[in-house]
């Protein structure tokens, strides 16, 4: 097993990884920017190294600075958390070259899943359901028109290098395609340095459902079931839950089995998330794979009792999945997560500054992942996520009640947060009934405005 791990992240996820290290008896090393000197990840790690000024490019994204810290601290491995360098194949390669274990899949697999139309082809090859789409890059608007005419409108243009909605355009009629093709291409070039596009049949009002997997370095891959992530705004998730109200045991088993087989063929190891769209007939279609631990992983931990971060570390140390899991995956009860962001709850503008009061709720079935504390400061340079409030209950009804009471007891003063927004969503009859899709928040916010 590793003796020492460098945590190449900040905030709640850095703390989450440090917790896993402590429980495994592994020393942890925090890295921090000058803006994070007083952060809890610095306080709770066994060692901490300042790697630069506040700007991301000069600190947490600065590969030479991160590697230098790892060399100085003499660590065996680096855990990248989510975001930042977590899906950077070059970083994983540099770690390998420096004989530091990158806690994640191989650089080749990170690259494969990062090229969306290649990931699609790999999934299709092994029987994972995908949407009708162009096989590979669409070289011109004319080629796109020809393909779309055959499949039928609406279609969606997506950037090969994309993800998170950038470089995407919905095309409802043939006339619009040439202009939207050019827009998507220039947006993708500017954002990713790669303007390649592909096409898919567009799904109206889909749900976003993702599967959690774990793979070891011996060819074993297991599915830990799904998370329902449709409650999002501008591609930022707000609420996640497991199980999805639309999932059946049969569908979960079918998708889980085909994913295990496929990812075993691909040589996938580490935790991973496979994103699907679900249409109104409950059919699932693969859209993207994320090769990192995700923000919402606690939802799966709550219903399976598997510690995903400890599993990542044990797998990277070469352990077999059977020894990591010690038994079959069993799903029990229902879990819900609300992402608490330092943002104005209606305007969604960032709200940095000093937290004056911080009173997180506790009690039965409540878990909070956070690095925030009273008198602490939220710097303006980074992601606005400050806490994840996660609850479990014996069923969805109990989880909803528990979340409502916990949100009512969560007091944060000094900055704006999304807590009031979550209280309102939890009171919405459609949300409570499980009647929603990826358009829910937009309709919800419009509805409230007209009601005032
Ligand atoms: C789609 C789609 C409908 N049809 N693909 C948005 C982000 C990227 N990960 C994929 N996305 C979508 N792809 C087809 N063929 C609708 C979306 C989409 C969406 C997906 C998941 C969660 C929220 C979303 C919000 C708007 C659009």
Quick summary:
The protein has 452 residues and is an alpha+beta fold.
- Proportion of β residues? 15-25%
Named at the architecture level, the CATH assignment of the largest domain is: 2-Layer Sandwich
Instruction: Tell me the domain tally.
Output: 3
CATH superfamily of the largest domain, please?
A: ATP-grasp fold, B domain
pLDDT under 50 segments (min length 5)? Answer: none
In angstroms, what is the radius of gyration? 22 Å
How would you characterize the largest beta sheet?
A: 8 strands, antiparallel
The whole-number mean of residue pLDDT values reads: 96
Q: Which structural traits does this protein have?
A:
452 residues, alpha+beta, Rossmann fold, Dna Ligase, domain 1, D-amino Acid Aminotransferase, Chain A, domain 1, 3 domains, eight-stranded antiparallel β-sheet, 16 helices, binds ligand MV4
Question: How is this fold's topology laid out?
Answer:
Elements (H helix, E strand, L loop, with lengths): L3 E4 L3 H14 L2 E7 L6 H5 L2 E6 L10 H11 L3 E3 L9 H9 L3 E2 L4 H8 L1 H10 L15 H11 L3 E5 L9 E3 L5 H16 L4 E5 L5 E9 L5 E13 L2 E7 L6 H18 L3 E9 L5 E7 L6 H8 L3 H9 L4 H5 L8 E8 L11 E2 L2 E3 L6 E5 L6 E2 L6 E9 L2 H13 L2 E3 L5 H8 L2 H5 L6 H12 L1
Parallel strand pairs: 1-2, 1-4, 2-3, 4-5
Antiparallel strand pairs: 6-7, 6-8, 9-10, 9-12, 10-11, 11-14, 12-13, 14-19, 15-18, 16-20, 17-19
Helix pairs in contact: 4-5, 7-8, 13-14
Provide a descriptive summary of the structure in words.
There is one protein chain. Strand 10 and strand 11 form a beta hairpin. The chain has helices at residues 11-24, 40-44, 63-73, 89-97, 107-114, 116-125, 141-151, 177-192, 249-266, 297-304, 308-316, 321-325, 396-408, 419-426, 429-433, 440-451; strands at 4-7, 27-33, 47-52, 77-79, 101-102, 155-159, 169-171, 197-201, 207-215, 221-233, 236-242, 270-278, 284-290, 334-341, 353-354, 357-359, 366-370, 377-378, 385-393, 411-413. The longest helix is centred in the middle third of the chain and has 18 residues, at 249-266. Strands 13-12-9-10-11-14-19-17 form an eight-stranded antiparallel sheet, with helices on both faces. A five-stranded parallel sheet has the order 3-2-1-4-5. The protein has a three-stranded antiparallel sheet with strand order 7-6-8, with helices on one face. It is α+β, with helices and mostly antiparallel strands and 452 residues long. It has three domains: 4-103, 3-Layer(aba) Sandwich (Rossmann fold); 132-201, Dna Ligase, domain 1 (2-Layer Sandwich), CATH 3.30.1490; 207-451, 2-Layer Sandwich (D-amino Acid Aminotransferase, Chain A, domain 1). It contains 16 helices and 20 strands. Ligand MV4 binds next to strand 8 and strand 13.
């Amino acid at each position: 097993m590793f003796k020492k791990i460098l945590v190449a992240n900040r905030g709640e996820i850095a703390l989450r990884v440090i917790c896993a290290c402590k429980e495994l008896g592994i020393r942890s090393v925090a890295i921090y920017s000058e803006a994070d000197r007083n952060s809890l990840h610095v306080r709770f790690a066994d060692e901490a190294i300042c790697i630069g000024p506040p700007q991301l490019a000069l600190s947490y994204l600065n590969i030479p600075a991160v590697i230098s810290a790892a060399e100085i601290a003499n660590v065996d491995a680096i855990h990248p958390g989510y975001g930042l360098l977590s899906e950077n194949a070059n970083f994983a390669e540099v770690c390998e070259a420096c004989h530091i274990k990158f806690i994640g899949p191989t650089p080749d697999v990170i690259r494969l899943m990062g090229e969306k139309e290649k990931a699609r082809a790999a999934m299709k090859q092994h029987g994972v359901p995908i949407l009708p789409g162009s096989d590979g890059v669409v070289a011109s608007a004319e080629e796109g028109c020809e393909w779309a005419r055959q499949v039928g409108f609406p279609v969606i243009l997506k950037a090969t290098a994309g993800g998170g909605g950038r470089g995407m355009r919905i095309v409802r009629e043939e006339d619009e395609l040439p202009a939207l093709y050019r827009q998507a291409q220039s947006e993708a070039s500017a954002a990713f340095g790669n303007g390649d596009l592909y096409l898919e049949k567009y799904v109206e009002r889909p749900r976003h459902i993702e599967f959690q997997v774990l793979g070891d370095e011996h060819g074993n891959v297991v599915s830990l079931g799904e998370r329902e992530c449709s409650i999002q705004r501008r591609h930022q998730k707000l609420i996640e839950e497991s199980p999805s109200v639309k999932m059946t045991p049969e569908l979960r088993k079918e998708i889980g089995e085909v994913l295990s087989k496929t990812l075993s063929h691909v040589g996938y190891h580490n935790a991973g998330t496979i994103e699907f769209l679900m249409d109104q007939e409950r059919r699932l279609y693969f859209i993207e794979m994320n090769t990192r631990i995700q923000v919402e992983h606690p939802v799966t931990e709550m219903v399976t009792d598997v510690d995903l971060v400890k599993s990542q570390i044990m797998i990277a140390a070469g352990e077999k999945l059977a020894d990591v899991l010690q038994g079959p995956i069993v799903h029990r009860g229902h879990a819900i997560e609300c992402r608490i962001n330092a943002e104005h709850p209606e305007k969604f503008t960032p709200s940095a500054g000093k937290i004056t009061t911080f009173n997180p709720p506790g009690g039965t079935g409540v878990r909070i992942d956070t690095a925030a504390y009273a008198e602490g400061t939220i710097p303006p340079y980074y992601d606005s996520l400050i806490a994840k409030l996660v609850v479990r209950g014996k069923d969805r009804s109990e989880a909803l009640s528990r979340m409502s009471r916990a949100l009512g007891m969560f007091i944060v003063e000094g900055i704006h947060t999304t807590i009031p927004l979550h209280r309102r969503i939890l009171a919405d009859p459609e949300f409570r009934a499980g009647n929603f899709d990826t358009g829910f928040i937009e309709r919800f916010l419009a509805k409230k405005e007209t009601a005032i």
